[in-house]
Predict the structure of Response regulator transcription factor.
Amino acid sequence: MKKIKILLADDHEIVLKGISFFLSMQTDFELVGEAHNGKEAVEMADKLQPDVVLMDLNMPVMDGIEASTQIAEQNPHIKVLVLTSFSDRSHVVPALQTGAIGYMLKEVGPDQLAEAIRSAYKGNVQLHPDISNALLSQLIPQLPSAEARNLSSQDSIESLTPRELEVLEQITKGLSNKEIANILVVAEKTVKSHVSSILSKLNLHDRTQAALFAVQLFNSAE
């Protein structure tokens, strides 16, 4: 069985050791390195080529935002999963804009963290439930609050076709129209048409909103 190679970046020694011990207990994980600041994380990611980097944000020398940006530029195939204590929008949005595959809070349970790492490794967007709810409510202020609270309900998606649901699921993985077209074996212009229809039916503005909506939808269905 191929193990998921993980690089952990955190400047708090106690947190670092605690998470390291947890990761070492997972039979499908391999902890390949520990970075104590963002600069080390970038250098070690380039050298060790992990599958997933667990990235704290508030670190010395170079913070997690800049480190995530550099890793995305130098090694775009590496998945960066933010693991931090900050839940405010001023941290969340910049982190996701770096290309990070997800944003988790350190309060998350061990089993949830393990599953988030496994899912991020597969290319699926991972958002802590509190982050997902906060971002979604801020991104769709044009909807009445009752509608916003019920976006994950069946009523909100019943107008989508089976193919549109497939496209929506691929959007959560951050795939382009061309990549989705290759996976679904359809023309790129067909995917573009499906994306436009999805946004229109769900009264959303862009793919980011669609991805956040889908994360809530598919998580609630589990």
